[in-house]
Amino acid sequence: WYDDYSRHLYYATNSNSVDGSWDTELLAYALVNRDEGEHFGGVLSTDLAIDSNNKVHATFHVLRSSMGDGFWHASGNLGSWDKIRIDSESGTGVDSAIAFDSNNGIHIVYSDTTNSDLKYTFYNESTMWSTSVIASEGNTGWSSSLALDVNDRIHVTYYDADLDPVSYTHLRAH
Asked: Residues with Cβ < 8 Å from 113, sequence gap 6 or more?
């Protein structure tokens, strides 16, 4: 969850609990200078998914922070996280969605608000992150969602603020 006061992102789970209690920890923090006159900053716009190996994956957008602006991915479990910045542009990572293919390849769509684009990135154990632009016409890429079918084909919906309707596209599997 995102703490609006501290501007930090926390992770909570009750997966190890017999009595239903929750374990929580700080996943990402952003040291934001509140005296800059900016209205907001910190860790924003998150998504969470768990792969078939029970590994947790989180995506989040960081803005005006000592952590480094851009779009981040964290993976791991309670007490042990690997974090990497996927896209270093300050307006990237808004409205992200994450899903996994049948080989636990990571697929993510997200908005690049600086360029008004919808981006797609993919990662598996044999490759590094590979990012491309799905849609770039107009003010596009808002409120994206992502799903993979049984053949690992990628299906994406997103909002285009200029055209107004929700748009749909599909991509071939990697």
From this structure: 91, 92, 94, 141
| Cα distances (angstroms) measured from residue 76 to each of 44, 57, 108, 120, 164 | 19, 7, 17, 22, 37
3-class DSSP state for residue 144?
strand
User: Which strands, in side-by-side order, build the sheet including 70-77?
Assistant: 42-50, 56-63, 70-77, 80-87
Per-residue b/e over 131-167, b at no fewer than 16 CB within 10 Å? Answer: beebbeeeebbbebbbebeeeeebebebbbeeeeeeb
Q: Contact 82/46 with Cβ under 8 angstroms?
A: no
Q: Which amino acid is at 116?
A: S
Q: Tell me: the pLDDT tens digits for 30-78?
A: 655 444 555 566 666 788 899 999 999 988 877 666 666 778 888 888 8
- Please give the Cα distance from 136 to 39 (Å, whole number): 28
Instruction: Reply yes or no on whether the pLDDT at 3 is more than 70.
Output: no
Gap between the Cα atoms of 140 and 162, Å rounded:
7
